[in-house]
Amino acid sequence: MTTIPVGRYPAPVAPFSAKGDFMADAFAELLRYFLDNGAKGLLIAGDNAEAWSLSLDEIAEMTRLAMAAAQGKPVYVSAWAITERETIERARAAADAGAYGLCVKPPHYVHSWADAPASAIVRRFEVVAKAVPLPMMVYNSPNRTNVRITPDILETIRGVAQVEALKDTDHDAGHQLENVLRFHDRMAVLVSGPAFMPAMLMGAGGTIGTGMDLFADADRMFDFADMTPEERRALQRKIFDVSRVINTTGTIPAAYKAAFNMLGLPGGHLREPVPSLTPADEAAVRDLLVRYGALDGAAAERAAS
What we know:
There is one protein chain. The chain is an alpha/beta fold. The chain has a domain at about 5-220: TIM Barrel (Alpha-Beta Barrel). The chain is about 45% helix and about 10% strand. The protein has an eight-stranded parallel β-sheet with strand order 1-8-7-6-5-4-3-2. Helix 1 runs parallel beside helix 2 (about 55-70), helix 9 crosses helix 10 (about 255-260) and helix 10 (about 255-260) packs across helix 11. The longest helix has 20 residues, at about 230-250. The chain is globular, with a radius of gyration of 18 Å.
């Protein structure tokens, strides 16, 4: 099994101009920010990048930029859509542009009324793996797809694809921990914020797509075992607060983009149908950045006025 380094795997936004054009130079600047700040790899062209709106040419351009910036660190490119044909087209666009690996989800929307059969879930990963045989990150995101990849289903997927990582953003922390228990020695199980500390103690491979990447001291979270109980509680509160504000203020990725813009980084504009944040929502994001030291309070107040 290929082992990827333990650590943070950010999922960058895709900066768009006011007219909706992808801004390559701005994206390259964001990549430098993440990599200079300790990222061990990247997941690009995903939900934070408004994947549903990206053309094949944009996926290819993002892939080339990320692979050049990463300098050997793993870059997974999101390849998901409702149909197999569209999913494979996205996977091939990434592969032709030199992608290290792919991140694949089950088909979304289709299984909105009844549970998806395990065979249908596994098939999506199998057909992509056969068409574009690159290292794969499995993405369990039931809040997006209405499909939960159980540990047993993940075991079956391992038999049909070259799985080396799991992105698990299941709202059930127990589900994330069960995956760490079962697969910690066979793939990098990358967890979301609420399960971070217990998951890392049991051998998780790190975090992915969390708003903690907004903070210059983000890697300090991996030193939690050496912290005092009070420091660990403060860290967990920060993880909770960041996850809540960035993921539930407005529509993803509006808050994440707004945060980058507030920090002087090129988060860019949103593409429809994602609406802009309300003034109250912008204030909530700004307050978060000030509270945890990413943004100077006085400067933030002047910028907001």
